[in-house]
Amino acid sequence: MSAKTPKTVIVEIERMREHPLYKKVIRVRKRVPAHDATGEAKAGDLVRIQESRPFSATKRWQVAEVISREGEAYAAAPRAADIEKALEETEGVTELLSKPEREIVEAGLEEDADVEDGSDARAEGASSKAERT
């Protein structure tokens, strides 16, 4: 008889939510059985699961990948700057940010023209004051 590897892992999904009455942030945990065909997930690992066909009466999820091993969660976590950049790209924020720069440059050119005209007007005003005295 060959030893069978267990193909079921219990995945704990943890999220934070605010209590509706007391407004305190609390941890909500949910445990779901997931199918692990390769048997590579161990206790304490960070895994990604996906919905799948029913494997048993209660098992409706399967392990898609092991993101990091136990104790390596910080190493696998994406950096905040990378996340912000990805969000900006998906929301089109980079286009919005680049648009005002062009408008600022155009407005700057108009202000330069006004300053040149204003300096001439000031010079004319100074010469008219000189003529009056």
How would you characterize the overall build of this protein?
- This protein has 133 residues and is α+β, with helices and mostly antiparallel strands.
- It has two domains: 8-77, Nucleic acid-binding proteins (OB fold (Dihydrolipoamide Acetyltransferase, E2P)); 88-132.
- It contains three helices and four strands, in the order E-E-E-E-H-H-H.
- The protein has a four-stranded mixed sheet.
- It is elongated, with a radius of gyration of 32 Å.
How would you sum up this structure in a few lines?
42% of the residues lie in helices and 27% in strands.
Report the portion of residues in β strands. 25-35%
Q: What is the CATH superfamily label of the largest domain? A: Nucleic acid-binding proteins
Quote the average pLDDT: 75
Number of helices: 3
Fraction of residues in helix = 40-55%
CATH topology of the largest domain: OB fold (Dihydrolipoamide Acetyltransferase, E2P)
How would you sum up the major sheet? 4 strands, mixed
| Name of the CATH class of the largest domain | Mainly Beta
Order of helices and strands: EEEEHHH
Shape designation: elongated
Helical/strand content category? alpha+beta
Radius of gyration: 32 Å
